[in-house]
Amino acid sequence: INAEYMGFKNGTSGDLQIAIDAIQAARSPHCFIGVGKQGLASVVHTTGNENCHIILRGGSNGPNYSAAHVVAATEKLATLPPSMGVSCRVMIDCSHVL
After folding, report:
1. How far apart are CA 33 and CA 25, in angstroms?
2. Distance between CA 39 and CA 47 in Å, rounded?
3. pLDDT interval class at 5 (50, 70, 90)
């Protein structure tokens, strides 16, 4: 996958950990069997993507796009060790805004 920016949504419970874990995985290089540029089965190598962010999309407890939710999310992300490589960038999924 060659995407400049990748966003990961919080879990349906509203918890950010699923998205944080996904960002960590996306930042790492991967090697897997897939379809190459010529349409043939091949070993695909990726370098990982450091340009990832969290997408707030609400959860089973309701919306999470208020200023307080955004502040809480960025504060949680800011407490993670730098070695995890998770930035404090947050996007709000407006398709879930009523």
Report:
1. 17
2. 20
3. confident
CA distances to 31, 35, 56, 84 from 41, in Å: 13, 5, 36, 33
Other Cβ atoms closer than 10 A to 58: 20
d(CA 21, CA 85): 11
Name the DSSP letter for residue 2. -
Q: Which pairing describes strands 52-56 and 90-92: parallel, antiparallel, or unpaired?
A: parallel
How far, in Å, CA of 71 to CA of 43, rounded? 42
Mean pLDDT, the chain, rounded, equals 87
How does pLDDT run across 57-77, given as a tens digit for each residue? 988 888 888 899 999 999 999
Separation between Cα atoms, residue 16 and residue 12, nearest integer Å: 10
Which helix (H) or strand (E) is 32 found in, with range?
strand 30-35
pTM for the predicted model, two decimal places: 0.79
